[in-house]
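Morning. Coffee machine broken again, so started the prediction first thing and wrote up yesterday's gels while waiting. Chain of 89 residues, entered below exactly as on the submission form.
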Amino acid sequence: MARMEMSAIPASLAIPMEASADAYYELGLMHASGRTGPVDLVAAQTWFNVAFAKGCARAASHRTELALEMSRDEVAEALREARRFLTRH
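Came back before lunch.
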């Protein structure tokens, strides 16, 4: 069984349980702009979906804008990831 050091976990995955909708929105911005490494539109879309579901209305416009740059499969993947995250948190 593989072991992973906590320091090896990206900061974007170490989210406190009480994180606000704005924190998820910021994660979306980080992934969309490449502040976490290479631009990752699926991850950005995922976090904007989570932020919107948690009550961040401004995430909606970013979701829409990103969806125009993504394939249907990418948008579907982001939705699946957001649902998976929301059911666990």
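Residues 1-9 have pLDDT under 50 and may be disordered. Going to sketch it on the whiteboard this afternoon.
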